[in-house]
Amino acid sequence: MNSVKNCNVARIPKKNFQKFLDEAEGAAAKVMERSVIILGTFFVIYQVIKKRGNNREPK
Questions:
Q1: Residue 13 has pLDDT above 80, yes or no
Q2: 12's torsion region: left (phi>0), alpha (psi -120 to 50) or beta?
Q3: What pLDDT, on a 0 to 100 scale, did the predictor assign at position 45?
Q4: Which helix H or strand E contains 12, and what residues bound it?
Q5: Category of 13 on φ-ψ map: left (φ > 0), alpha (ψ -120 to 50) or beta
Q6: pTM of the predicted model as reported, rounded to 2 decimal places
Q7: Which helix (H) or strand (E) holds 18?
Q8: How far is CA 28 from CA 25, 31, 48, 50, 51, in A?
Q9: Letter string b/e over residues 22-59, b meaning 16 or more CB atoms within 10 A of that residue's CB
Q10: What are the pLDDT digits (tens) for 21-51?
């Protein structure tokens, strides 16, 4: 079993593996950027609603 695994790893050229890692990293970065933007938007909306809610309370 181990010998089969070692053969499979050896067959993958290092260039392709590095390319795969770079692509995976790029995809992860894009997802992180999107999630940060989405979270930031929700946070801003939440703050606005919170402020409006405070203004509605009797003075």
A1: no
A2: beta
A3: 94
A4: none
A5: beta
A6: 0.45
A7: helix 14-56
A8: 5, 5, 30, 32, 34
A9: eeeeeeeeeeeeeeeeeeeeeeeeeeeeeeeeeeeeee
A10: 888 888 888 999 999 999 999 999 999 988 8
Rounded average pLDDT over 7-26: 76
Separation between Cα atoms, residue 16 and residue 41, nearest integer Å: 38
Q: Give the chain's radius of gyration (CA, Å).
A: 24
Token couple for 46:
């939440």
- Local confidence band at 6 (pLDDT 50, 70, 90 cut-offs): low
**In the chain, what are the domain boundaries?**
2-56
What type of residue sits at position 17? F
